[in-house]
Design a protein that fits this description.
There is one protein chain. The protein is mainly α. It has a single domain (about 30-270), classed as Vanadium-containing Chloroperoxidase, domain 1, CATH 1.20.144. Helices cover about 65% and strands about 0% of the residues. The chain has helices at about 1-30, 40-60, 60-70, 90-100, 110-145, 175-190, 195-210, 220-240, 260-270, and strands at about 245, 255. Strand 1 (about 245) and strand 2 form a beta hairpin. Helix 5 packs across helix 8 and helix 7 (about 195-210) runs antiparallel to helix 8 (about 220-240).
Length: about 270
């Protein structure tokens, strides 16, 4: 009796997974709710233009800054922070949480738990796709641009490009670690709005440890962080327009997490018991 019962539970879980995926895809493909702000804003267009000119202005100093910062001994102690930008630290937990929660029989759990699980599931899924998709965009750019890494600065210089060159050596621009930190910075800024500026500054600093570690040039870091940060905010705004994971509140730029207010009300109800 145990084996058929296990098979029944497995089939039921797989059916719920399929239903959840179908509902999600329907929401994504649906038009935004009337009156919702667009995912892309004029301010973002201006930011892209400013970042582009910043990269142009900074590029002539890439070699000097790379040599200076990578050889500055007081910065040696922070180089180990660079691995915080590895995407697997965030993708694997987000994926595991999403997979564990997607198969839950939501109809048979208490309302308070359903609110908690709904918030965690939505945000874990959002975090996974924000980091994964921005990383894919960066990897495509790396392949198309093919900039040599700073370890070749003495032989090839800071202006060596080999487009369509696969591999690590010619994958300097943009920085993948910095893209991850840009995405993580935006995610945390959405989750913890009161700590928004310290979060952004901290993730920027971690991104720039790639220069200290002589793995990237400063312009690689600026470009990578911008890709990760802007893509994540645009994705959150896109979802908010469809009231999936996020909703638009008082702020016209930063959307709010969906279910957040319900989550805190549920927590308050539990604390009273």
């Amino acid at each position: 009796m145990t084996e058929p019962s296990n098979q029944g539970h497995t089939q039921s879980a797989l059916r719920r997974v399929g239903q959840s995926i179908v509902r999600f895809l329907r929401r994504i493909n649906a038009p935004a709710y009337p009156g919702s702000p667009s995912a892309w804003t004029n301010g973002m267009s201006m930011a892209i233009v400013l970042i582009f000119f910043l990269i142009l202005l900074l590029h002539p100093y890439d070699e000097f800054l790379s040599r200076t910062l990578s050889s500055y001994e007081p910065l040696n102690g922070v180089r180990h922070l660079t691995d915080i930008g590895l995407s697997q630290w965030y993708l694997i937990p987000a994926f595991v949480i999403g997979v564990c929660l997607i198969g839950i029989d939501w109809g048979n759990i208490a309302r308070n738990r359903r609110v908690r699980f709904g918030l965690v599931y939505a945000q874990a899924t959002f975090a996974f796709w924000a980091i994964a998709l921005s990383g894919i965009l960066t990897n495509i750019a790396k392949f198309l641009i093919g900039r040599a890494r700073p370890k070749f600065i003495d032989t090839l210089g800071a202006n060596s490009f080999s487009p369509f060159q696969a591999g690590y050596d010619f994958a300097s621009f943009p920085s993948g670690h910095s893209t991850t930190m840009g995405a993580v910075g935006a995610i945390l800024a959405l989750w913890f709005p009161h700590w928004r500026m310290p979060i952004i500054l901290a993730t920027m600093f971690i991104a720039f440890t790639r220069v200290f570690a002589r793995a990237h040039y400063p312009t690689d870091v600026v470009a990578g962080y911008t890709v990760g940060f802007l893509f994540t905010v645009v994705l959150a705004r896109f979802l908010a327009g469809r009231r999936t994971a996020f909703v638009f509140g008082k702020s016209q730029f930063w959307p709010n997490m969906r279910f957040r207010e319900r989550f805190w009300r549920a927590e308050a109800d539990l604390s009273k018991k």
